[in-house]
Amino acid sequence: MPTQKPMIKLIRNEVYWRDRAEEALAISADIRDPECKRIMQELAATYERLARLTADFKSAAGTPALFEMRSGGSN
After folding, report:
1. pLDDT, tens digit, for every residue of 18-59?
2. Residues 48, 11: contact at Cβ < 8 Å?
3. SS3 letters for the chain?
4. CA 66 – CA 60 distance, rounded (Å)
5. Which residue, 55, 51, 56, is CA-closest to 22?
């Protein structure tokens, strides 16, 4: 039986992305170059956005409306 690749589990885990965001912000605090600092802060914001999207996706995946759409239910 084939096993899932570890990355699949990480993508679906909002805690993973929030941890990466916190780590990127912590690193940015020590960066002196303004451009590098900005880039690291943008990276942190992107990780946070991935966390929100992951949580939203999980929430939406469990809604009855989505189930009805998949099963061909009437509107």
Report:
1. 999 999 999 999 999 999 999 999 999 999 999 999 888 878
2. no
3. CCCCCHHHHHHCCHHHHHHHHHHHHHHHHCCCCHHHHHHHHHHHHHHHHHHHHHHHHHHHHCCHHHHHHHHCCCC
4. 7
5. 51
> Which amino acid type is present at position 20?
R
What token pair was written down for 53? Answer: 């999207």
**pLDDT computed for residue 69 by the predictor:** 44
The count of other CB atoms within 10 Å of the CB of residue 66 is 11
Tokens 């929030």, located at residue: 18
Amino acid at 13: N
Token pair listed for 41 = 């802060």
